[in-house]
Write a structure and sequence with these properties.
Elements (H helix, E strand, L loop, with lengths): L13 E3 L2 E3 L6 E6 L4 E7 L3 H17 L6 H17 L1 H12 L3 H21 L7 E2 L7 E2 L7 E5 L5 H14 L3 E5 L6 H14 L6 E3 L4 H10 L3 E7 L2 H12 L4 E5 L5 E4 L5 H7 L1 H5 L11 E5 L3 H14 L18 H17 L2 E4 L18 E4 L6 H4 L6 E7 L2 H9 L8 E3 L3 H10 L4 E4 L22 E4 L8
Helix pairs in contact: 1-7, 2-4, 2-6, 3-4, 4-5, 9-11
Bound molecules: NADPH dihydro-nicotinamide-adenine-dinucleotide phosphate (NDP).
Length: 480
């Protein structure tokens, strides 16, 4: 058994106006460990009154201090965040692995990526600039990039620390004060970030706060507060729509990163071995709880059998286990209900006519029975019109959809309400670029599975993608 000794607190406080506090609600909620479904901690829940206080503090800090800081001063604060994160990398990674169920290696990667985000925006802050535009009448037109004021960052449970850093770092860099609301399943790494902000960064009070509690009360109160000028949200599409509605009256600025049902296109000329061997973790990594999961594999009929058998073989070799075990590649799902949802979708797929070629079972062997473990599911003979191929499952379920005709395949790929990410596997770059432009998606990768970079735009999560950011990876082909 891996060492699970961490400082167990009675109840963790949230971070309001420079102080850790239990707030005024008198309530606390349980934070669980998905690998054993035992309580990891309890966190005090903020009241609406606490939210109002935090927004007032954020507004005051913005007006009186933060907006007046020079870019280089803000950059220095951001670098201290990065230093503090790196100095606590192991502790944060363990917190994240225990709280989310994420393999420890993945957590380390994410925490380090969080530090890189602070470093990146510490550099970017000096080059954010406006423009000097030629105008048709005498005079000069100058545009300025100004902070908005109070920015609310509302994050989900699947990548809690990385999502938090990806929102907090740019918002602070631009001169906004920030209120971070973590998901109620996974508030612990955000509270660690608050501790770093307090002890290492010495952030002026009110500039950065972490407020915990349910979306239905705390989230709503933040979203509806008239002084919150910007809302950056990642989560479910339905919640995103609700946030838009609730903030529409005052015309707040809202950025939404929502769901995905991303394609993995395997062309007839693909390096099938490489595609098949690298793709399991592109859909089952983070136990499939990933908005960019390549959960619909469109595979050309000529290579279908080879791809499916190699994919199953590669999946069989992935290590499912304790998130704190160094060898683990796939951990438990975040909650019993999230696992049940995946199991139900597998059953639905079979009912709709798909064939279960591998997995899709609750793991009940010793070591697994207390946690939310399941084997990744591979459904073949799937039709794109089936619900299992259209709805975001957010669990380890792959749908394999065969195709023969490229045009018809593109239509099917685009016949989906989501358009966030995806991959194309081909040895023909002309084909790769043609498909990359035809697929309606925010980001796409060719011959690799990663298309998210600090330096590049990402996160278009509906079909209104205005441009494609394609990533390429050059690496050795697999040996034949
Ligand atoms: P939710 O939308 O339920 O929750 C996300 C966050 O919003 C949580 O902090 C939640 O708080 C909060 N929230 C819930 N309701 C409200 C509300 N009415 N007002 C304000 N805040 C609210 O999503 P999940 O946490 O379940 O995350 C999983 C979903 O996120 C997936 O379905 C996936 O589609 C999406 N996702 C998208 C990503 C992307 O980049 N596009 C990345 C990651 C996930 P609480 O936890 O307290 O309910």
């Amino acid at each position: 058994m891996n060492n699970r000794s961490v400082k167990r607190q009675c109840r963790s406080n949230f971070f309001l106006n420079g102080e850790f506090t239990e707030g005024t609600s008198g309530k606390a909620f349980d934070v669980m460990e998905p690998s054993c479904n035992k309580r990891l901690d309890q966190v005090h829940e903020a009241s609406v009154e606490d939210v109002n206080q935090s927004v007032e503090a954020a507004e005051k800090a913005y007006r009186e201090s933060w907006r007046k800081t020079k870019p280089a001063e803000r950059a220095a604060f951001l670098r201290k965040f990065a230093e503090g994160i790196r100095a606590n990398l192991e502790e944060i990674s363990r917190i994240e692995s225990r709280n989310v169920g994420k393999p420890i290696g993945d957590s380390r990667w994410e925490v380090n990526a969080g530090a890189e985000l602070f470093d990146y925006y510490a550099g970017a802050v000096s080059i954010f600039s406006g423009e000097n535009l030629p105008v048709s009448r005498p005079g000069v037109d100058l545009t300025f990039r100004q902070p908005i004021g109070v920015a609310a960052c509302i994050v989900p449970w699947n990548y809690p620390f990385l999502m938090a850093c990806s929102k907090v770092a740019p918002a602070l860099a631009a001169g906004n004060s920030v209120i971070l609301k973590p998901a109620s399943y996974t508030p612990l790494s955000a509270l660690k970030l608050a501790e770093i902000a307090h002890k290492v960064v010495d952030i002026p009070k009110g500039v950065f706060q972490v407020i915990c509690g349910p979306g239905s009360t705390v989230g709503n109160a933040i979203v509806e507060h008239p002084a919150v000028g910007k809302i950056s949200f990642t989560g479910e599409t339905v919640t995103g729509a609700e946030i838009l509605r609730r903030s529409a009256g005052r015309i707040a600025r809202v950025s939404l990163e929502l769901g995905g049902k991303s394609p993995n296109i395997i062309c007839q000329d693909a390096d099938v071995q490489r595609a098949a061997e690298s793709s399991p973790l592109a859909v089952f990594g983070n136990t499939g709880q990933d908005c960019c999961a390549r959960s619909r594999a469109f595979v050309h009929a000529d290579v279908l059998d080879e791809f499916v058998s190699r994919f199953i073989e590669a999946t069989r070799k992935t290590v499912i286990g304790d998130p704190l075990d160094e060898k683990t590649e796939i951990g438990p799902l975040v909650s019993p209900s999230q696992r049940q949802r995946s199991i139900d979708y597998v059953a639905l797929g079979v009912k709709e006519g798909a064939k279960l070629a591998y997995g899709g079972e609750v793991l009940s062997a010793p070591g697994f029975s207390d946690g939310n473990y399941m084997t990744p599911a591979i459904l073949v003979d799937v039709k794109n019109s089936m619900r299992v191929a259209q709805e975001e499952i957010f669990g380890p379920v792959l749908c394999v959809i065969p195709y023969k005709d490229e045009e018809a395949m593109i239509q099917e790929v685009n016949d989906c309400r989501y358009g966030l990410s995806g991959s194309i596997w081909t040895r023909d770059m002309t084909r790769g670029l043609r498909l990359a432009q035809a697929v309606e998606s925010g980001v796409l990768s060719i011959n690799c599975n990663n298309s998210v970079f600090n330096e590049a735009p990402s996160g278009v999560s509906n079909r209104a993608a205005s441009g494609v950011n394609a990533a390429f990876m050059h690496s050795k082909p697999s040996p034949k």
